[in-house]
Amino acid sequence: MDNNSIEEIKISGQLSLFPSKWFVRVLLSITGLSLVSATGRLILRYLFNFRQSVNITAGQKVFSLKVKRTLFNLTVKNSEIVLPEESLRSLSIENSFKYLHLVAGAGFLVAGIFTGVHFILDGLGARYPYLALMGAFIIALGVILDALLYFLVPQSSGFTSVNISTQSKNYRISGVEYEKALQLVSTFKKIISEKAQKNLTDCSNENPS
Measured between alpha carbons, how far is 56 from 173 in angstroms, rounded to an integer? Predict the structure, then answer.
């Protein structure tokens, strides 16, 4: 593979590690160790201000993860994880709040209808038309807010996480800029594509027609 054919990019975020074998994850869930581990990470993060900041350099046949571990804003360890192309299995992006504006719009719509109908029924029962009109106005306001959020708010990238799966571990990098995450996916696809082309060429050379 030509090293210059893949543009090198760099991204940064917060690192978490998980086992890649499914039976290990099942075992951790059954025994409750996954809950203990998650609780421990939360305690370290919020009580001791523990962070695992990572800078990823992608390209040139490898993914290089430079990890900086800090405790109370003091650096306790620096390390580097090198993931060669043959160990990479998959790479995906998660947008935790991609449809948050749609959920908010639905909330306004439901709240407007519920409150508006209540006002209308009370107004009709008490023969107080202004109360009924207020209920109709609340319903209309809920519909308008829902429509505005649907049509005017662009698709949100939210808080993006990148999941890198290898033969031995899964790496989750959170707090990544959405555009950088897309570039990382593009680089990963190029690495896989060029790897497949190289394997096809090697097979052709080994079995000439």
Answer: 9
Residues paired with residue 208 on neighbouring β-strands, in sequence order? none
Per-residue pLDDT reduced to its tens digit, 163-199: 888 887 888 888 788 888 888 888 787 777 766 666 5
Q: What is the largest CA-CA distance in the chain?
A: 92
Domain 3-97+159-206 has CATH 1.20.210.10: no
Beta-carbon contacts of residue 32 (< 8 Å; ≥ 6 apart): none
Residue corresponding to tokens 């319903």: 139
Task: Report how far apart, in Å, the C-alpha atoms of 75 and of each of 36, 49, 68, 72, 148 are.
Answer: 25, 11, 7, 8, 46
